[in-house]
From TrEMBL:
Pfam families: MDMPI_N. Residues 9-94 form the Mycothiol-dependent maleylpyruvate isomerase metal-binding domain. GO terms for molecular function: isomerase activity; metal ion binding. This is Maleylpyruvate isomerase family mycothiol-dependent enzyme. Keywords: Isomerase, Pyruvate. It comes from Streptomyces luteoverticillatus (Streptoverticillium luteoverticillatus).
Amino acid sequence: MDVRTAIASERRELADVLDGLTEDQWNAPSLCAGWRVREVAAHMSQGFRYSFGRTALELVRSGGGLHRMTDRLARRDAAALSRREIAQALRDNAHHPWTPPVGGPPAALGHDVVHGLDITVPLGLGRQVPEERLRIVFRTVQPSTLRFFKAKLEGVELRATDLEWSYGSGRTLTGPAQELLLLAYGRELPAGR
């Protein structure tokens, strides 16, 4: 599957998910520490709504801290934008060429897939990311990814039970691929997962 096609499909599907959420679900905690579903969804569209120059300015305003900047903007945008505007931003920008500072299109797909799971997993929606998208995103899992997201997986091998994929070495931790992806991106899974 072409990565850009996968990105567009993921964004449209997530916009549909967001359109179907209740107000209580929008205000529910996500897997991103300190963010509700609303902040995660607002964050997902920042790359479309902020020019490079404005992003640089916001980074300076945040003292050069990328995480501080994204947190501040997500909270501000979540308060300013309606649920409909946030979902529509994903839908309208399904083919937008935005990518994170490193990693290119596969990292952009990873951004969308992981943040989509940050929303759908704690809400118990049972959304399954298509295997071909997971395979693309798994190529982004490397030591730098684990460090950036503060994933603590030293001495652990992640091994998917629903597709052929593993990462790392040591004590084997098995589970569904998309849940292992969340661990690689530094997320804590809900109890029982």
